[in-house]
Amino acid sequence: MACQALVGGMHVAPVLIAQDRSQTGLHLELNPFGIRALLGLPAAELSGRVVDLAEFGSRRLVSLPDRLAATGSWERRFAILDDVFLAHLAEVAPAAAPAPEIGEAWRRLIVAGGGIRVGALAGEVGWSRRHLADRFGRELGLTPKQVARVLRFERAGALLRQHGPMDLAGVAVACGYYDQAHLSNEWQAMAGCSPGTWIAEELPNLQDLAGATEPDSPV
Predict the structure, then answer these.
(1) Which tens digit of pLDDT belongs to each residue from 169-179?
(2) CATH code for the domain defined by 100-206
């Protein structure tokens, strides 16, 4: 699928997106609840999917990639985004807001960086664990446990990007993993490669990271 503009939901597995050697573009991250406001559907409908922005049918959204490409100023591109999204928001029929307990559960997960047990989270919002998983999953497409996994993974990646060489065992502890082996297993599931491979490919300046070898790798 060749697209100028892609819209993706939350994923718990790696996604391969092919691209030209040289490209420019904008990467915009939306709060899952903002998807309801901007696109008129719950985030669950995009979970695990990557679709063409044109599928949402708005003439403003369909023409947005060409307008951005034809503009030479980044300041003007951001202004176009603001104008298009604000105009589109006025067109989209308001969607029913999710239960406040779902929003509070999401907020707590974000604040804790995924480091909160689902049972404790359910107790905080006043629902049973099963009811929370069901309602939360229907709105966001992922259960609280899955969102916690994504947030821990993102937090670990952010630590490596922000602080440079770090011991992976220390990163694991800081991000709520049981140990380095747990981090490595989750990284393989989320990124499709080991932490060491990810570091070498995504952060080449960190290739000498202390502790970057996998737990079962020869030293």
Answers:
(1) 989 999 999 99
(2) 1.10.10.60
